[in-house]
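Form 7-S
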Amino acid sequence: MGYPGKNHKQYATPKRRFEKTRLEDEKRLIIDYGLRNKRELWKAQSVLRKYRAGARELVALRSGGLSTEDYLKKRDQLVNHLYRYGLVGENADVGDVLALKVEQQLDRRLQTLVLRRGFARSPKQARQFITHGHIAIKGRRVTIPGYRVERAEEAEISYYGPSPLTNEVHPERSRIARAGVR
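Output:
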């Protein structure tokens, strides 16, 4: 166990530290998604690893003699959870969970959605807007760029009420509009 008040790592580091192809892929993802460091990427990979492990466990339980009713219940719990976060479609199966990619997980981060919805010009600017408190979900300020946005919350992303960016004539808003992002 351990001391419950002490935080523990939420990710696992790669086993081969200097594998060239992995390093190149990580660098590309960090640049594309505007991640601060590799730790953020490793966290996303660890979350996906847990989902895949749950799906593999379901497959093993199914072949091990679990009743159809229990299997369907557990499968629906897993798929509904992933559907709520927008990682799989509504009619997904265990195979879809096993086929998840880290890019799908990174696409659900608040930082990425702020950029894609046109609130910022670049991933770095999206991160800055979030950490400085200019972005809100359902009217509540969110200052965590790695916040996983649920499917229902996606339409509720906006500028935070007291933020100067809510004003349409703000210079940065006009730059964003001129850039053709929004």
